[in-house]
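User:
Can I borrow your eye for a moment on a structure tokenisation matter? Would you put together a sequence-and-structure record for a protein of your own picking? Please set it down just below, with no commentary around it:
AI:
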Amino acid sequence: MKNQTSLKKSCVTKLIQGAAVAALCAGATVANAEVTRGFIGAHEYALPDPSGMKPWNVFVEYTTFQKTSKVWNDSGSKKSSDDIESFVSLSKFVHFWEITNGVGIAWELIVPKVSVQNRDTGDGVSGIADLLTGPAFWIKPNENWTLGTDMAFVQVPVGDRDLRSTRWNVVASVFWDAQYGKFNYTGNLGTTINGPTERKGAADPANPYYFNNRFGYRVSQLVEPYVGVDYQWQDSKDGVAEAHELAGAVGVMFHMAPNYHLSVHYQGGIDGKNMPVSNNLNVRFAYVF
């Protein structure tokens, strides 16, 4: 039981890396979690022109519920596993301002809350996970495009005992958003750079790489359906097998008011290897003030 508990703690830690949302830990053969940043919705990186912009704030709550009893095995087939349920919520506060002429900066603080339960064995962990903080920068090369980067987000190992990491990690990504009439395309390409572990004899995991895309079409003032394609890959390292997953998403964004909106989408696994099969519901609520 001690080794099983240690494994679960290690697995859950991997699930909350970077600005990603954690979803589940399905067992010893699984290298990592569902596709990182699979929680993003349409207009995720739609930011205003920073030129002459006054400071402003946003609060965002991301929630993911994942339930699966399948994993992708080493040959890419679905294999039965324990029935794992996870509930992850990310509370994000961001302050925006213009750092210099035409360049915006956003400083973010993200607090993850995690609950992972194995319905077959009754084992599980829950609590506050390691917080993340750091700056993002963006520009508007023209009125239709936003281009930016968050190259210095840090995962700080200060979470609850059962969820605390043994390492400091850094998140690096580039992001973009394009708006052409009713059509929106938003996405990011990123990685989580894992720091050295503080636990003697523990293996250092390989860095995951992820690519997320959302395509939306606003059919009315209130409703904007969107679809998504997400991919994550992690190389083999220290005896842990290479892993990847391709997942698709379909959802709706509700533009309820100029300063707040709600997005809901389902994400399901299409193809993969040595990862849990994505089967999750994602909700995003954002409030600008």
In short: The CA atoms of residues 169 and 194 lie 5 Å apart. The two ends are 48 Å apart (CA to CA). The chain has one domain: 2-288. Residues 1-32 have pLDDT under 50 and may be disordered.
